[in-house]
Amino acid sequence: MSLTDQLLAQNTVKLDSKIPAGPMADKWNSYKDNMKLVNPNNKRKFKVIVVGTGLAGASAAATLAELGYQVDAFTFHDSARRAHSIAAQGGINGAKNYKGDGDSIHRLFYDTVKGGDFRAREANVHRLAENSVDIIDQMVAQGVPFAREYGGLLDNRSFGGAQVSRTFYARGQTGQQLLLGAYQQFSRQVGLGGIRLFNRTELIDVVVIDGHASGIVVRDLVTGELQSHAAHAVVLATGGYGNAFFLSTNAMSCNVTAAWRAHRKGALFANPCYTQIHPTCIPQSDDSQSKLTLMSESLRNDGRVWVPTNPNETRPAHEVPENERDYYLERLYPSFGNLAPRDISSRAAKRAVDKGLGVGAKKNGVYLDFADAINRLGRDVVEERYGNLFEMYERIAGENPYEQPMRIYPASHYTMGGLWVDYELMTNIPGLYAAGEANFSDHGANRLGASALMQGLSDGYFVLPYTIGNYLAPMLNKSIPGTDHPEFKAAEEAARLRFNGYLSAGGTKSPDYFHRELGKIIWDYCGMERTEEGLTKALSDLPALYEEFKTDLRVTGSGENMNQTLEKAGRVDDFFQLGILMCKDALDRQESCGGHFRAEYQTEEGEALRDDENYCHVSAWQWGGDAMKPNLNVEKLEFEEVHLATRSYK
Amino acid sequence: MAQVVTSQRGPVTGTATRSKKRRPFLIDLYSTAVGKKYVMGATGIMMMGFVLFHMIGNLKMYLGAVHLNEYAHFLENLLVPVAPEGVVLWILRGGLITALALHLHAAYSLTVLNRKARPVKYQSPRDYQIANFASRTMRLSGLVILAFIIWHLLDLTFGVVNSHVGTMTGVGAHAGDQVKDVYGNVVSSFQRTPVALFYVLANVLLGLHLFHGAWSIFQSFGWNNPRFNKWRRGFATGFAAIVVIGNVSFPIAVMAGIVG
Amino acid sequence: MSHNLKNITLKIWRQDGPQAKGNFETHIVDEITDEASFLEMLDILNDKLIHDGKEAVVFDHDCREGICGTCSLMIDGQAHGPQRGTATCQLHMRQFQDNAVITIEPWRAAAFPLIKDLMVDRSAFDRVIESGGYITADTGGAPDANLIPIPKPIADAAMDSAECIGCGACVAACPNGAANLFTGAKIAHLSRLPQGQAERFSRVESMVETMDDHFGSCTNHGECEAACPKEISIDVIALMHKDYRKAKFVNRKDLARK
């Protein structure tokens, strides 16, 4: 009996993925044909709370409001346009086959499952690939200025992990343009009264009454006031938890609080150890650095990655002769070369730097060289393609990438793990949904480039508006608990105590200090490469640091007006608990797959070694009342369409 | 308090909804700041036409008293006998007065709007990057020009502050007719040094006003085309320079004795 | 790469709330590297303030990649500081001299009421977008993306103005507190595209009128363009002015006839 089956027998929570029957290509249509509907005139009787206004949240809120539901949308930003989806650079995949290079829905589906190292749920991925086509149509209709060819048709580029050109882009700002498109649809509904927008309002708790998600408790960041909101359904589109690493490409205020608070109320947290390290970020230059900046992966289309073969190389890059350079990606993975998937490229860079071949003052990067591209295409073409990225690099690093190669190094970027959801994107708490990066479902153990935007929009525009209706239909004309229900009052009281606790901790160190230390531990032991020894150490260091956090935290100011230190304290608290779970999960998963690389489980060539016999499952953790005592539940992954195979990008 | 947008939950289809007051379209246009700028531009063009032709007409003083006085006589007799003497001139003047009034009203209401838009000023010095002296002194230059227009009318049109105005002369083609001695008016006015200096100052400010205003018209009207954009600043500079050089030459010529 | 360490004197605006009286506070931050960003320098200051038991300076910031538009700050009299085409978060300390005295103020405009210290409320921008800054295209009914070819120059021009990050620097820098660059950028983005034609005139009318409820008027100084981190050209303002004028004159029933 495999480990998966043993664990399955021990599940404490029934995990029904609700995958529709039928052939893979028909599942989503068959779901739509059979789902329950809410009459257009009855939709306004339902209230849906959407937390987060990024791609998934804004698109879900806008579409639900278009359908006629009452939507209350919450964001801790000052405006719905600020969410970190905006920072995605490279593009969005769409199986349009506009290039006639043999792309299809099936191929995108296949690439995504394979890219995810066979740890994603097939049916969800197939639906994602189907929706990718509609997303492009929808966004163009909304006025997203995707790049065009001279004839006026849409342009595509290729991206890591794919052998076709299916990535639509808008300069290096695709995420911005897509988010603004969704934001505009969202704003239209705000203007029309379909959505009530609560800005600078942060989710503090999720309220579950009689097993159903009944609402949320939020904190008005400007006044510090706690408020309750009740609704028929709650959508969490609150992004990923990559900021657990402190230094990541996430925005400063990205946090796990919403998902974590839901987790503490009973929602299972799936695969927290699946975190993606992006291969092309600007290396850390300084100890006070607050974040890392990503350079779009699209740069790898024309840039060549190399390190000097001599660890003591001191010459500037252009003086290093060809035979003293190691173009290691081209050497190791000839068919994909510089476009090898993210996890593979990242680890290759880490190995090079660990061998002492790193470049830059801190010897913490590898070269991404455009000299060949400039010779081949001319500087103008390179500028046309990457001009804004080059400028950005120069502003940050103070070096001109037209003249000397960029220095890059991997950094935490995206988290594939998240709240466990079924095919309807509903968590195991009825009425509580998770969309976008906040859920775990579509990317398995590794996400392919240009797929995050696709997933956020697919969830928001084309999945939730259907599946929420299916949940709400039977609730018509039934009353729901109001905010005067004792559960709401209890959640408010708990939140008040929690925040007062931070203010009165009376210690000496700022939340940022703890975040930085926490991040170091997680990065060192639960980053690009994990070992049993390291994770065990992390699991003793983290609780110790967490104890110190509780006693030695200092939050100045008051809880009655804007206090960013206090906000941060609450977020760091949740990161501690999550960080412990990440390490637990990473320790528990005794295989290597995608973004989860356990040094003990690798091939002779240093590639990830999966254990499909024992780990072809989703690890969904249940809150056990203490961060150190989570309960493991598993969902077995069945592969009908794509056969389990060793991923090879050689 | 974080701002919560609550509007009446209403129909969820629709577009660019904003309940509109019904009113004549020109007044509707004028009701917004963008519309007022459009009116400022249009009235500006009218007054630019005036200052240019006023300056060109006055160049006749270099041809001698006869030419200038005849020109003045010609203006008063436009379209005579279809229209009685002076009527067309007054219609033109009426147009200019209306333009000026609209220009002033728009400027005043935009200034009020702009003051309200920043009730608390920056507490540290601003470091302007592009805004130039001309653009930042439009209100000041405009007010000085307004004062000058009033003085100028009192001086050379109505003669309130110039006793020579009203003097008739018989020179010229109409040997028998008596025409107004405009030439003499100019000379007697500019022989007073303070008047001449005020005239020069006002015209330099007019040049500044035109330097920014003539360029602004293109923006306010939306006349923007990569093919001619680079000429817009040149046009404004050239126009302002021509008007200023022409106008300022008159008092200098009088004081230097070239005209007199 | 240089590793100069700089000492910086900061004059920072502190104000407890919208009604409270504000003033400049002087702080010294030592040993800042060239590689540090401007906001990292403020992080260091805040860490020091917390260490000293004082309240941290409140300022808006998020992505620190120059794209989300959350950061603001009037630095030495310039919105987003001295480097052209750069948001505050992308400004690095190598732009400043050792022993520099840097004055930091919040953005000031009636439409951007102050929340605390350096943080202001820019919701008025959302009101402008809500009034028409979109193309009405309900989810589900979109035609194929390649159905309407859009010539590259048009797509590029639309993209140029779509790059606006909504940071508010244009309003902050404008001597009149006008938002014409922000509003013009959205109008130029949508009204240049074939998809935006149906609502072209209702959009510009509605957005311009909403803009008037909050902001001052454009007097063509051009400060907004100089402050814009995305270097959006004031050409978009001209386009908005033109479309607004047309909106008042053209017969919209005949729009499809030309």
Termini gap of chain A: 34 Å
Which regions of chain C are unreliable across 5 or more consecutive residues at pLDDT < 50? none
Strand content of chain C is 5-15%
Helix content of chain C: 25-40%
Structural class estimated from helices and strands of chain A = alpha+beta
Structural class of chain C: alpha+beta
Say what the CATH topology of the domain at 278-413 in chain A is. Flavocytochrome C3, Chain A, domain 1
The top-level CATH class of the domain at 278-413 in chain A is Alpha Beta
Could you describe the largest sheet of chain C, including whether it forms a barrel?
A: 5 strands, mixed
Level-2 CATH architecture of the largest domain in chain C: Orthogonal Bundle
Oligomer: heterotrimer
Cα shape of chain A: globular
Kindly describe this structure:
- The complex is a heterotrimer of chains A (650), B (260) and C (258).
- With 650 residues, chain A is of the alpha+beta class.
- Chain A has a domain at 278-413: Succinate dehydrogenase/fumarate reductase flavoprotein, catalytic domain (Flavocytochrome C3, Chain A, domain 1), CATH 3.90.700.10.
- Helices cover 36% and strands 15% of the residues of chain A.
- In chain A, α14 runs parallel beside α16 (564-588).
- With 260 residues, chain B is mainly alpha-helical.
- In chain B, 63% of the residues lie in helices and 2% in strands.
- Chain B has a two-stranded antiparallel sheet.
- Residues 6-16 of chain B have low confidence and may be disordered.
- Chain C has helices at 38-51, 123-130, 152-162, 169-173, 180-192, 200-214, 223-227, 235-249, and strands at 5-14, 23-33, 74-75, 78-79, 101-105, 114-116, 119-120.
- Chains in contact: A-B, A-C, B-C.
- At the A-C interface, α3, α5, α6, α11 and α12 of A face α1, α2 and α3 of C.
